[in-house]
Write a structure and sequence with these properties.
2 copies of one chain form a homodimer.
Chain A (H helix, E strand, L loop, with lengths): L1 H11 L16 E9 L8 H23 L4 H14 L19 E7 L4 E8 L5 H11 L4 E3 H10 L13 H14 L16 H10 L7 H5 L2 E6 L5 E7 L9 E2 L9 E4 L3 E7 L1 H6 L2 H12 L3 H16 L3 E6 L5 E2 L6 E7 L5 E6 L2
Parallel strand pairs in A: 3-4
Antiparallel strand pairs in A: 1-5, 1-12, 2-3, 2-6, 5-6, 8-9, 9-10, 10-11, 12-13
């Protein structure tokens, strides 16, 4: 039944043959995101839009090249995310949002759909590639999640490339934080919307309901990068990397490094990476819920991801989106915000690079 | 259909009326655990068994009293876990296992099934009740998870009771750590079994397969306490608290504070708290998987929990167990190890306090 669907999918999803790359015998697929939020045409200069698109293309090509030469889904995910971590346009690695203390504290996770092995790190300040560290945790430690100074110590033992924290910090992020802190005194954040950091969840939720602009800063405040891949051996992988939440305090951990919430992969169902207001994604266990719907109801990847992103998450008030791929190479990238930086080449070879809803 | 099952359950599960407490009109239920592992009669002195049973009874009574007087499931879970945290017999709060550095670093999480609000903390060293702090994170911060020094700072702002780290540390835990560190040099831990902390997951898994005794230390090495409850208003809650893994390094975080893995609650399905080898519980997203099976397949709580604990987890090699309660007050406490410290009063008023498999 699945094979039939896969065959149908291969026949049906290439309406414009001239833009499609040749579909390999066994499908390979890659999808990535660079954050979701109120990304509106009027707020994005043509120059910035072009630069973001170029970065998305570059990351997509880097990961897809790995798959094309027969590399693993894990390698493709890592290669994709490392490009996004090094790009200043996204909230991960270089260009990460800053904590209340003005530092970059990075989180990342990776999961291997073949074995359901997983690695995750949080509060990273000196490791150049958090996604690389997450993978080392998965492959070279008996643990799944390491945080803070302990995770840095493990990175040291593993001989990973270290940088000073300044390496990650852009001047515009400092300015963003300065404005946020100034506004914080009045209860509003850098985007002129009620700031969640010092109010109760109830008050924040009320503010969210009352202010259509509140999600306006989501891309900046909660941005994330991520990738999912299917390799020629039929193995899936997912990874996510982020600077977390702008102005975060108290050692806050979002959904990106939480296996099941922001990152999940299982060859039996799908690989998922999420981006959005992490607290809601943790509570809804978003990535694992999508996999569970597929596994236990037989709904398709697209139906399952849509049910969570446009259903459960919207009911809870959680803005954001996901990228996901299944063992047949089908890709879905739903989001409930005005925009999500995203790109993919699905199992039929169709290439997508997009920012807005259309 | 559900009501019919509930009615049948109420009729069927009270075989020994004399030991059952009177069942209230609307069911209330509470279950707790104090860790799972190779708990064998021959290794437990009568004195220790009596002391552990007394602690389980005391925690059960503390939580159930809250429910009996109409209190919330959340209050019952917190009351139960605070007794277990203060007891020296379990790996949580006082009596926690020690890190490689000889300190106690505590994790906890709580989730409200009514709203799916959640709070979690990791790496706590000076807050007397980690479960209380997790609840404050849920109720008084906009975040779900706080770790390390940041979480401690938040505790300070909230005015929670602080203690020195020594408050949590028992002499026998120091001795346990000393033996473990001595054996570590030869690659074996305090229990004389291959130690996972410095080998690859593959080597550890190989050792696990080769050594039937490896799980022998699980109760000591991976113990956890937890509680789940159903209150008179039909609301579910779950909580978990732990010292984590004995001899842990590198800021290791286990499943207890990972929402969906060690702790999950949703009024629509069930409340779950897990105990066992945390890395596997994270990878299998155990607590949320049980809820998903109920939600998406219609299997009962007992069937769903059994499918995960005796199915997926065993396939992965993950030893441990869970306690779970559903909105009808049914309780299940499956484990795939020789024993699990556990106690419950289900919706029909049946009281259980048990350690071994029989």
């Amino acid at each position: 039944m699945r094979l039939l669907f896969a065959a149908l999918a291969l026949l049906m999803v290439s309406p414009v043959a001239s833009t499609a790359q040749p579909a390999p015998e066994r499908p390979i697929a890659l999808a990535l995101h660079g954050g979701a939020g109120t990304i509106l045409r009027q707020n994005l200069t043509p120059e910035r839009e072009a630069a973001v698109r170029a970065a998305l293309e570059q990351a997509l090509d880097a990961g897809y090249a790995v798959l094309l030469r027969g590399g693993t889904a894990l390698d493709a995910v890592e290669a994709t995310i490392r490009v996004l971590e090094e790009s200043p346009h996204f909230n991960a690695g270089v260009g990460a949002v800053l904590t209340d203390a003005g530092t970059a504290e990075l989180d990342a996770a990776v999961m291997d759909g073949r074995t359901r092995a997983a690695g995750a790190v949080s509060g990273i300040t000196t490791v150049r590639s958090p996604i690389q560290l997450a993978r080392r945790v998965m492959e070279r430690s008996p643990h799944v999640m390491l945080v803070g100074a302990g995770a840095e110590e493990f990175a040291g033992q593993q001989g990973l490339e270290r940088v000073t924290n300044d390496f990650f910090i852009l001047p515009e992020r400092r300015e963003q934080l300065r404005r946020m802190q100034e506004n914080r005194r009045t209860g509003f954040n850098a985007l002129g919307v009620p700031d969640p950091s010092f109010v109760s969840p109830e008050r924040f939720d009320a503010a969210l309901a009352a202010s259509p602009d509140l999600s306006g800063g989501m891309e900046h405040k909660f941005g994330t990068v991520g990738a999912v891949a299917l390799d020629r051996d039929g193995n899936l992988a997912a990874g996510t990397s982020t600077g977390g939440m702008m102005g975060k305090k108290f050692g806050r951990v979002g959904d990106a490094p939480i296996i099941g919430a922001g990152t999940y992969a299982d060859n039996a169902t799908c690989a998922v990476s999420a981006t959005g207001h992490g607290e809601y994604f943790i509570r809804a266990v978003v990535a694992h819920d999508i996999a569970s719907i597929i596994r236990y109801t037989g709904l398709s990847l697209t139906q399952a991801a849509s049910a969570v992103v446009h259903g459960s998450l919207v009911e809870m008030g959680g803005g954001g989106g996901v990228i996901a791929v299944d063992p047949q190479g089908r890709v879905t990238m739903p989001f409930n915000t005005p925009g999500m930086y995203r790109a993919a080449i699905d199992g039929a070879g169709n290439r997508t690079v997009a920012i807005f809803r259309d």
